[in-house]
Structures are given as C-alpha cells and as structure tokens.
Design goal:
Elements (H helix, E strand, L loop, with lengths): L24 H22 L13 H7 L7 H19 L1
Length: about 90
C-alpha cells in the first residue's frame, strides 16, 4: 500500500516572502531569470522548500481576471502552494 503524506494549509510559524515588481519586459525578464536561478540554488543547497509563482498577462483585462475576477486569484494559489510545501517537508523529515 502506498503511504500518502499531504501538507497542511496552515502558515503558523512559517516565514515567507512575496515580491511583486513592474518594469518593462526587457528588465523584468532578466530579473525573472536571476530569481529563478537563485531560488533553485537556495532549495538545492539548503534543503529549504522554495516555491516560485509568476503571473503573466498580455492585457489589463487578463491581469484583472488572474487577480480574482474570473479564474480565482493566482497569487493566492502560489502562496498556498508554498505553505503546503513547507508543511509537507516537516512531515517527511
């Protein structure tokens, strides 16, 4: 039988950061590449669970939809994923 371990959606005792920025595409793509590399390196070197969520939009209407008007808040979904990952790692260790 397969053992199922699930994370919890409680952020009690967990520290995390959310960063949002707005620049032109040339700058933001370069920053994004650096952030992705750094987050992967931190996760690998420290064993610390890391999660990275990026929300892109081609228009203001699309951005509003992804912020919760039509398809749920994608930023909220990314934060929940990070919280669940931390709690899952606690259970595994």
């Amino acid at each position: 039988m397969i053992k199922v371990i699930e994370g919890e959606l409680s952020a009690k005792g967990i520290r995390f950061a959310i960063v949002a920025s707005r620049f032109n595409r040339f700058i933001s793509e370069r920053l994004l590449e650096g952030a992705i590399d750094c987050i992967a390196k931190i996760a690998y070197e420290t064993g610390t669970p890391t999660s990275f969520g990026i929300i892109t939009a081609d228009s203001t209407d699309q951005a509003m939809d992804r912020a919760g008007l039509k398809s749920g808040n994608k930023g909220w979904d990314a934060a929940l994923s990070a919280i669940e990952m931390v709690n899952l790692l606690k259970k595994i260790k």
